[in-house]
Specification:
Elements lengths: L2 H9 L2 H5 L2 H5 L2 E13 L4 E13 L3 E5 L6 H9 L6 E6 L2 E2 L7 E4 L11 H5 L1 H5 L4 H14 L15 H14 L4 E5 L7 H18 L2 E6 L2 H7 L2 E6 L4 E7 L15 H17 L5
Parallel strand pairs: 3-8, 3-9, 6-7, 7-8
Antiparallel strand pairs: 1-2, 1-4, 4-5, 9-10
Helix pairs in contact: 7-8, 10-11
This protein binds adenosine-5'-triphosphate and magnesium ion (MG).
């Protein structure tokens, strides 16, 4: 079964997802409860997460937004099992998780493609780690490279790709393992505005087409509004989720001009005021 067919079966068809209706009505696929994490260094003690709760619905696109250092990456790493929490629990489809989950994939801000491997072999990296045969992983990696429009670069070394194309390989690498939940940490943060907008449209399209559940970290409020069903707002020191807002904008949002929608503008000023207040700045 192809990824698309499998995903459609899981969410009841991509047509539903295109309108975003099932995503908000769904039951939680992923839950974190009472997550705490304190970092101790010689210089300071930082409460990165202070009893953070989050329930992510099946098929939902949820963003984590907040100022630098408020604990977004820490939470994402804990969700994936890359970081150990001091307290709290996480469940996927109701099952408690321990260690790194094979059912989730992580897209890092710094993609770090292996320079000695072809684009195809980079996209297949996670499959190799999961013990898939060479033939199967080549076929799967090719499938996801096609999804991100890079099939013709499969045999090329990564240095021949632009930054945006390399970022697409990172997305393909994560999609290749067919994750139940895709975790993305500022994946477009280092790109120029035009490339970033193009990739935002692309990820929105893939999300709708594949019926994925995505937890997405960003500093960029407009990016969060464009992509998300809901946005979790963080405040730092100690890191907490202080509000979760619904993004009640029509889907599909393939046209980036949705940013100018009156509801988007209202939401933007609400989020900015919330974030400024958290930093002790005037609203
Ligand atoms: N390994 C570590 N050792 C010590 N402190 C850490 C470590 N990792 C994170 N921190 C601290 O924990 C806090 C939260 O860090 P985190 O990386 O989660 O923030 P963030 O919200 O992702 O920030 P940014 O938007 O800049 O990426 C920060 O104060 C950071 O300095
Ligand atoms: Mg971060």
């Amino acid at each position: 079964m192809s990824y698309e067919a499998q995903s459609d079966a899981r969410v009841g068809g991509s047509a539903t997802m295109e309108h975003g209706s099932s995503s908000r009505a769904g039951s939680p696929i992923l839950e974190v409860r009472g997550m705490c994490k304190t970092f101790f260094t010689k210089e300071r003690t930082v409460i990165a997460l202070d009893h953070v709760d989050l329930a992510v619905n099946q098929g939902e696109f949820i963003s984590l937004v907040g100022p630098s250092g408020c604990g977004k990456t820490t939470l994402l790493r804990i969700i994936d099992g890359l970081e150990q929490a001091d307290a709290g629990e996480r469940t996927l489809e109701g099952q408690a998780l321990d260690g790194v989950s094979q059912d989730m994939a992580y897209v890092f801000q710094d993609i770090n493609l292996l320079p000695w491997r072809s684009v195809l072999d980079n996209a297949a990296l996670g499959l190799e780690a999961r013990g898939m045969s060479k033939q199967d992983r080549k076929a799967r990696a090719m499938e996801v490279l096609e999804m991100v429009g890079l099939a013709s670069f499969a045999g090329s070394p990564p240095y021949t790709l632009s930054g945006g194309m390399q970022q697409r390989v990172g997305v393909a690498r994560a999609l290749a393992v067919r994750p139940k939940v895709l975790l993305m940490d500022e994946p477009f943060g280092q790109l120029d505005n035009f490339t970033r907008e193009a990739l935002q449209v692309e990820i929105a399209h893939l999300w709708a087409r594949l019926g994925m559940t995505i937890v997405f970290v960003t500093h960029d409020v407009d990016e969060a509004i464009f992509l998300s069903d809901r946005i979790a707002l963080f405040q730092p020191a100690p890191g907490r989720i202080t509000e979760i807002v619904d993004v009640d904008l029509p889907r599909p949002r393939t046209d980036y001009d949705v940013r100018a929608h009156p509801k988007a503008l209202e939401l933007r000023s609400h989020i900015m005021a919330h974030l400024r207040a958290g930093k002790g700045m005037p609203e």
